[in-house]
Amino acid sequence: MEEVNQSEVAGFIILGLCESWELQVFFLVIFSSLYLITILGNIFIVVIIITDLHLHSPMYFLLANLSFIDFCLASVTTPKMITDFLKEKKTISFGGCMCQIFFGHLFGGGEMVLLVSMAYDRYVAICKPLRYTSIMNRHMCIGSVLISWIVGFVHAISQLATIVNLPFCGSRVLDSFFCDIPLVIKLACMDIYVLEILINADSGVLAAICFILLLLSYSHILITVCLHSKDGASKALSTCTSHITVVVLFFGPCIFIYLWPVSITWVDKFLAVFYAVITPFLNPAIYTLRNKEIKNAMKRLQC
Questions:
Q1: Which of 78, 82, 154, 174 is least surrounded by CB atoms within 10 angstroms?
Q2: Are 34 and 273 in contact (CB under 8 A)?
Q3: How far is CA 93 from each of CA 86, 97, 98, rounded to the nearest angstrom?
Q4: Domain spans of the chain, in order of start
């Protein structure tokens, strides 16, 4: 077969989540509702943190940025997936595919680093409370957010650069509902063994390093809380529980997709849906339902 350059590739065919029309109609209703709640929920968190002076603290500043990233991450793939449920033939242009890959890794990588910053904020607040205001000052908070965006951008560029000039020929079929690098590189007309290892290592190592840092940070926090039980211990424990829940839900599917050697189609699709759709939906629910200060801010907003 004749090899062609990516600039000549018209696009890719997407198989989606399933072939059954009845299931696609069901998924259309479910994911449309989830996406609407995700968008409104994350926007609401950002707005309430900006407008309520009681929430102008480092933790909520980072939380507002997390909600903004979740809003962006959910918008990378979900709208395309929803509209594809209405189409018999699902396709995506080469440029659209590259944009999904770039922005997916931009927001995903940025969220990983931001979650580490949030864990460090809780570590300082609980383990070094007297120095909290001096350590988590305005410059530290802004710097943490900037670093998360820079790391996400560098990660996304490095991922995109590895595939943008690959030669594609033959099959254009992606057995998923969006473009992701592990699926796209399998369509290249070349030996991808080394390239696949490098790409998976890039994403997998970043996720693994951030996950290990988070585990160490929250383990130290929980040990400190247990050993030095004070009046604010239950509050600190409740806050950390929310953060740990988000971390496990976000990093679990990501690490499994990129580091697990065996690829099972239905498992990969389930984890991709969980990572791209469910996690951005759960984050605002977890933080608003378990956070007393957010609840009080909602009551003040009603008044």
A1: 154
A2: no
A3: 18, 6, 9
A4: 8-302
Residue 13: burial class (beta carbons within 10 Å; 0-12, 13-18, 19+): middle
> What type of residue sits at position 153?
F
Locate 251 and state its tokens.
Answer: 């990093």
Locus of tokens 């500043």:
61
pLDDT digits (tens, 9 = 90+) for 237-266: 666 777 777 777 777 777 776 666 556 666
d(CA 13, CA 216): 42
Choose between 13 and 298: higher pLDDT.
13
Rounded CA-CA distance 300/49 in Å is 12
In terms of Cα–Cα distance, which of 5, 262, 271, 252 is closest to 115? 252
Class of domain 8-302: mainly alpha
Distance from C-alpha of 233 to C-alpha of 239, rounded to nearest angstrom:
10
Predicted TM-score of the model (pTM): 0.86
Q: What is the pLDDT of residue 7?
A: 41
pLDDT higher than 70, residue 121: yes
Task: Dump pLDDT digits (tens) for 185-218.
Answer: 888 888 777 887 787 777 777 888 888 888 888 8
Question: What is the DSSP secondary structure assignment for residue 187, as one 8-state letter?
Answer: G
pLDDT > 60? residue 4: no
| Separation between Cα atoms, residue 88 and residue 249, nearest integer Å | 32
Distance of CA 57 to the CA centre of its chain: 23
Question: How does strand 11-14 pair with strand 173-174?
Answer: parallel
Q: Is the pLDDT of residue 291 over 80?
A: no
Helix, strand, coil shares, percent, the chain, to 5: 80, 5, 20
Check: CB of residue 115 under 8 Å from CB of residue 210: yes
- Report the C-alpha gap between 189 and 259 in whole angstroms: 24
